[in-house]
Amino acid sequence: MYVVLTMLLVDVAAFLEFVSDIHTRVRSGKETWHPEQLFSPHNVVLVARTAGPMEELKKQYPEQVEVVVGDLSDFKIGPQAVDTTIKRFSKLDGLIVNHGTLSPVKRIADSTPEEWRTLFDVNFFSALAFITSSIPHLRKSQGTILLTSSGAAVSSYSTWGPYGSSKAALNHLAQTLSVEEPLITSLAIRPGVVDTEMQREIRGHSTSGVMDKKDAEKFLGLHEGGKLLKAEQPGGVMAGLAIDENLKEEGLSGRFLSWDDKLLEKYRV
């Protein structure tokens, strides 16, 4: 039985869809399992800004799910969530950092250090607050830290400087964790272009003329062509990684991997 702490900022509905879809299967080794197995027999602590959708999930899995509500730019939420996890389930096996904000979407010349700092507080420093509080418990369990990164960490988009920089920082954080914390497996995962609220925000910027034309056309085209990923696709991979008791033996710690990398094929929906 694994205990996983994960953050949900804007994708709670998509995550609920992922959990409730009984037809979705993920291959784990030689066995096939349903997404519900993230909750049964495993235990999950969910963190998000609003309680409603998470409370619905808790009603479905009252023995396996705990909920923490708070603004993730508040660095006290990380320690609070870890403390809640230990009090409720007595241990922690996995941490999934799955929150972030895109704003400000501005060219560097038009942005301010204060705007960048606000984004980094959410995308990077709040993640650090969760990680530093989790490390003592993850050492004991020889657990896993999964950081949701982005293709923007290694590819440049005009007006995405703050966002891409924060994701690049998460990639480096995973690398540093891998050398400082050898008992913990730390990975940065690129989830691909997923049909989430952030993509709707991007399309809004695409049609407003803020983004460069080629970048705007790319994201509008992915949506119009029906090529956006479902949340359960990268979500299934991350869930599988979080509860894989043999992950440490794979020697992947410190890597930045795309959700559909061949190395992660066995977890893929």
From TrEMBL:
Residues 1-21 form the signal peptide. It comes from the Eukaryota. Keywords: NADP, Oxidoreductase, Signal. The keyword Oxidoreductase applies. Pfam families: adh_short. GO terms for molecular function: oxidoreductase activity, acting on NAD(P)H, oxygen as acceptor. SUPFAM superfamilies: NAD(P)-binding Rossmann-fold domains. Belongs to the short-chain dehydrogenases/reductases (SDR) family. This is Uncharacterized protein.
